[in-house]
Amino acid sequence: MNLRTPDWHRTATRWTQLTLTENDPVEFDPAFWIDVMRRTRSNAACISAGGYMAFYPTRIPFHYRSRHLGDGDPFGELVAGARGLGMHVMARVDPHAVHTDALAAHPEWVARTPDGAPREHWAFPGTYVTCPFGPYNREFVTEVARELMREYDIDAIFANRWQGHGVSYSEHARRSFFDATGHELPLEPYDPDDLAWKAYVPWRRQQLSELVALWDTAVKDIRPHARFIPNLGSLAVHELDRDLIERHYPFFVLDRQGRTGIEPPWTAGRNAKRSRGAFRDRPAVLISSVGPEHHAHRWKDSVAGPAEIRMWIVDGFAQGGLPWFTKFNGVVPDDRWVAPVVDAFGLHAAVEPVLSRMRVTADVAVFDTAEPGGDPHEDGFHQALVEARIPFEFVSATRFTPEELGRFRVLVLANAERLSDEACAAVREFVRAGGGVVAGYRTSLQTADGTPRADFGLADVLGVHLEQDARGPVKNNYIALTGEHPLSAGYEGARRIIGGTHLVRVAAAPDADVPFRFVPDYPDLPMEELYARRPPEDPAVVARQGEGRTVHIAFDLGSLFWEALQPDHGRLIANAVTWALGGPHRVAVSGPGLHDIAVHEGDDELAVCLVNLTNPGAMRGPVRELIPVGPLTVSVALPDGRTGASARLLVAGAEPDVTVADGRVSVVVDSVELLEVLHVTWDR
């Protein structure tokens, strides 16, 4: 392992994080935590050091020390223990709040409400939220980072909750924003059409990116190999300045610690995909909590079910995100989380030697709209592709170039309403080169800034023209099959299937096929009136084949599948992607169950990760148990110049039989409990 070198982060692949509480210096057992690091085979640790509260003997004024610290140094003790195991070490600082003495001495440190009052902490009265843009972060936190670097043998500083909470109306923020933009700070809530909000978003991006650059430079001045790593909990990588990221972000730490509400378990892997879609050369580490994530109730000092913990961690690393678990409070009244974390981390250690030398790859890319709060259209397509066992990656709006699209064979635009002229040109070039496109609903009806277009920006590519923009909600809508077409596969016995709730009226180009047409509206009550009056008319799905293949779906297919999970809608998404591919999928998995598939590829080798999500709680957590599923047949296309292959199951430790026929290699996997990795080595 490369300790204390500039590329140390390349070998920091399994992380233990301990977030200490004020009473921990006299209550917790450091030896227990060192043993957890050993049992989980962690090679990196993130340990609470300071910021809101110091767990080491700081000498910085107004750096609040735990009142139980005394002459002790729990941070230093844990650092020494982790280093004794040969681990990398990162010091956690949390700069999001200060105590009343700091407010009295430094009122400029604190965020303000629109009327100028100090913003009191929402959860702990008597403390105050800091302003991320002023001297608290730029001066005080910088000095904390320098002190830690001088006094301890550490590789990095990790900042949690560093980017502020809501708009800070401090004098410093007001003045800085006005000088840069000519606007007063926007009033909450967020209004995308407000000019001040339009100016605030890029201004905030630049301010935060420059802040990380400042901190990173400060720690490297003391330890040249060290880095300052910000938690990207409420940010996505595309929200930060790209040039500064290239210089100052060696890897990303993504803070989505578990499922909440009705999130599916594949959300963990999606986080890794999104990061990779924006920055393919930067490792992404996914933080997982040992407790349940329920934002309304905040049971942070708790324990989730073991199956839930294992599934979340494993799906994350199968899709390329490195595992990191976090525990709040060093005292452990309930240690049921230890065994599942040990098991999940052990699985990663078992497959890492093979996966670490490969890259995640896919033929299909989904355009990442990066909508605040999520995008139900994208969620629906994601769910359908997982159900269809179609591996896919994300492509970010920040890297939407012909070169990036050229990595893939199919591009999915679930509902990319806002596409710039440059993005449309990139799609046009992609299709001219033989690529396939599946576009949903209102894709390309607006420019990047939200200006409406009179017609689809991709009208010439998709073979459709706008006749009437979306109407709805429409009840009782259906789409009729108009003849034999690959998009209609699997609907034998049906002349029509459920349509949409929001419909766009389009006209199809003469050289396009229309496999589905909308049945004209008719009542859903009284029941005696529930019948079609006219034959199918307007195009609902338009397929076109030229240099490449394109599909346009003229209704809210993605969001409706996400809401209602009707199987015909999932099948339509899978059929559209498969037809647009123009040939068989490179990797196909058949057999029972719900599986998240990832393909890792290297020189003369390939690995197929099968994550078994089959569970009655898959769409409404938490998962109560792991349910083994099998047998599964994995079929992989032989690359050019290869005549056969050997295979190994990395989790089972077995060498299965390999069948070669019709240019494909097939392997039967008898059973998968949670994870299996089929490692295929090609014969020349």
Automatic annotation (TrEMBL):
It comes from the Bacteria. Pfam families: GHL6. Coiled coil: none annotated. This is Beta-galactosidase-like protein.
